[in-house]
């Protein structure tokens, strides 16, 4: 049955299901977003966030991803939504030859049409009586919701707040950067002032000031808002509730993954509040999962012993005495039936529990110790790496930087500030044009790059893991024990895995055999929110030095170590821990 769409002042999905071929994306999802509510969508890549946004917007033939060719999906359920709805996709849906001025004017066209309807409805009041009064009332309500009287001033305020006010409107979309295109698309959408907003990763390409401006706008939005985001700080400040679309967590715990602060929804889990509340609920959920696992394992042990003991009572394996024969003459048949019934009951309970038991909770993310031996430098003191007047053309200049064995350094700065170049220098992958870099003898440095590329795309994660660590180390710390690569993906070619899966494999290689210096370039990119948070917690106990380059506001606000700020390739200050 196709999706049925009706209209109201709120957003609601009832029994929404979506499949692409044999792949089930959404299963019987039901959720309501009232006026003034702001629902954040979270979950792994491919969990269905973008698909849900498209369906809520009325696109019932939306493809599974914004970059895949269009395909007709099997969809079902019912959607209730406001008539005027605004959808922001990750990919800007404008032609490169479109002028910025035309883009903004197109956004105002709907607002101007509402204003014209209000004028015509007002003119008809003098002649058309009751019907004209109802028409005028509806037109006035629409004009107030669209804020038609402040359209021009709102346009200038939006462009300024999103950081694109100084760009000539006669330029075409193709003449500005990708980040600027995204900002203009967001400005145009907000300028329309739709009754409901659907946003897919709205903070992509926004700096801190623009994100703060958007947060303020969304918190004041009067209609329902649904947005997908990997920005944990944005989720924390904007969302009034979170919808977790990741089925892996729900299935892993045998269906017990219901947040204490939220309620279960068919095919997903709803949490009340922002990301901080989500983390608290997740911790409670983990504790319940662990308790249930322990209780079930204890019950399984008891049932197995009970079955074995009862079986011995039925067939004790000894000859009957004269007294046994006397008792059996009177009670034997009843005793046998009673014991057999207890055995059957215990066996049935055991069979049910063995079939339905929750799996063991995965171990919290943690790093193994740095292998001991000649290259174990962490306990020797002194510096591991030292930069002096390090210069790479016009990309980087650092007068002095020293890394101790247990250093914790966060490198911040805008895109293009030189963060990745600095990590490349520390890793020995980028050569200096002038200055010097000194490394301890025997130092092992690991770099988690933004874009992971494996030289052998046909090799499996398991094979790469065993080859990198060695057979003995791989046996001591099995890939499956890390919880980063699912068993169904362990033997697939790494080249067919998603960007996020390849990044998790690269992380697994480091976790099992940590280097003395661990460099991470935007480590939270392409990772689920839960894994990103677990990684940050685990890095606090890393057995060596850690250097992170990141623009992630959640990470930056909680960072307790030293911080180096780069601006146009130059270090503007080193803040001590």
UniProtKB/TrEMBL annotation:
Domain ABC transporter: residue ranges: 11-272, 385-577
Pfam families found in the cross-reference section: ABC_tran
Signal peptide location: none
Stored SUPFAM superfamilies: P-loop containing nucleoside triphosphate hydrolases (SSF52540)
Coiled-coil region list: 279-306
Keyword entries, A-Z: ATP-binding, Coiled coil, Nucleotide-binding, Repeat
InterPro entries recorded: AAA+_ATPase, ABC_transporter-like_ATP-bd, ABC_transporter-like_CS, ABCF, P-loop_NTPase
GO MF terms held by the record: ATP binding; ATP hydrolysis activity
Protein name: ATP-binding cassette domain-containing protein
Organism: Agromyces agglutinans
